[in-house]
Amino acid sequence: MVDKKKYVFISSMSAPYQVKFCYALQEYFDAEFWFYVKREANRPIWWQIDLKDKCKIMSDSFKIKKIKKIPDFGYVSIKMIIDLIKFKPDIVVFHGFMAWHVFGVIVAHMLKAKVAVMTEPARYALVTEEQTGETLLTKENAKKTLKLVHFLFNKVDLYIGMGLSAKKQLIEEFQFEENKVISLPYPQDIEGYYNHPIRIKKPNDKFTLLFANRLVERYHPLMALAIYKVIKENYPSVTLHMNNEGSLRSACVNYITDNNLKDVTFLDQIASWDDMHLCYKMADILILPCGYSNGNGSIIEAKASGMGLVISDRINNIQRHSIDNVNCFICELSVDAFVQAIRKYLDNPQLLVEHGISGRKMVEYKRNDNMAKLYYDVFSQHGFID
């Protein structure tokens, strides 16, 4: 492709899937991804991957937690401004309405660049992964914050909601111009998962359940253990693999001990990001009894791997690839509902094959080459590419 546009994406942390996506975008853009930090404290060391030559950490960045009415000021980097001036981008995409990004928007427009802000649904106050519910910013609970963000960012060329909930909030609550608001999915690194076999099983074979999400309140790992306890009583050959990270790990260990649960393994031997997919390859059924999620990445990974899935009905932005009783089971958030759904797979393993094949097809669009083409087409449609 001739005369590729210079594209810069600026975000908090060098998440591996963003780094991988940067290199997929090279087919369409002269893209660089800049991050404030290598890894935030709530991520394991194996999240750190080689940034190569198109991604970098801005060397002078630091975080300001609170300034007056701005509850989460976010990161700051003078180097970002200098680098924008040097790079002279055509397109700049900021991840989140961090206060410092206002200065980036101003500089980018001075450089005649088109500017987009990408955001998840904005939640009330400092909502953390420990919280189980969804309390979005609305005009009723955060009128001043919404007005401030609108005032600071109303000159942006495009607002990208990561999912339909975010898009709706950008229009209805932040009151940005509807013709400048779109919805786009996150990029996700799932190439390795497509090498996994579809799970072919017989009744009474060994089945492995996977709880892939962090051990925090939002995802209810203790409920996952309660579900497993009931399953294990009737299907003794079933085993459970669990994420090793999160504030509830000790509580999970105590539950396992107190209930004398057998065959529970914490995934504490992951050597690198590129090995993470092997955790899925070793399992058959993903379970996710979460209280809230804005479209969970583990669901995409499990589908790409060809697994069965039992997930809660509290998860947003999954309609495109998750159809109850077609390629997964979507349940109310209760132990009994999850147990009944898991038993369907255990009693009729052919469902694993059917759901695995269907699910894998329905997340093809999330592969990096397809996502890169989608982002190029979207920016073309909105006048970012002449």
Summarize the biggest pleated sheet: 7 strands, parallel
Pick out the low-confidence regions: none
Give the ordered list of helices and strands. Answer: EHEEEEHEHEHEHEEHEHEHEHEEHHH
- The class by helix and strand makeup works out as alpha/beta
Give the strand content.
15-25%
Radius of gyration: 22 Å
Mean pLDDT: 92
Count up the helices. Answer: 12
DSSP strand count: 15
Distance between the termini: 14 Å
Question: In one word, what is the shape?
Answer: elongated
Major sheet strand order: 3-2-1-6-7-8-9
Residue share in helix: 25-40%
Descriptive keywords:
12 helices, 386 residues, seven-stranded parallel beta sheet, alpha/beta, single chain, six-stranded parallel beta sheet
Can you tell me about this structure?
There is one protein chain. With 386 residues, the chain is an alpha/beta fold. Helix content is 33%, strand content 18%. The protein contains 12 helices and 15 strands. The strands form 3 sheets. Strands 3-2-1-6-7-8-9 form a 7-stranded parallel sheet, sandwiched between helices. It has a 6-stranded parallel sheet with strand order 12-11-10-13-14-15, sandwiched between helices. Helix 2 (78-87) runs parallel beside helix 3. It is elongated. The two termini are 14 Å apart. The model has no long low-confidence stretch (mean pLDDT 92).
Element layout with pairings:
Layout: E1 5-13, H1 16-24, E2 29-37, E3 55-57, E4 62-64, E5 74-76, H2 78-87, E6 91-95, H3 101-110, E7 114-119, H4 143-153, E8 158-161, H5 164-172, E9 181-183, E10 208-211, H6 221-234, E11 239-243, H7 249-258, E12 264-267, H8 277-281, E13 285-288, H9 297-305, E14 308-312, E15 329-331, H10 335-347, H11 350-362, H12 368-381
Parallel strand pairs: 1-2, 1-6, 2-3, 6-7, 7-8, 8-9, 10-11, 10-13, 11-12, 13-14, 14-15
Antiparallel strand pairs: 4-5
Helix pairs in contact: 2-3, 6-10
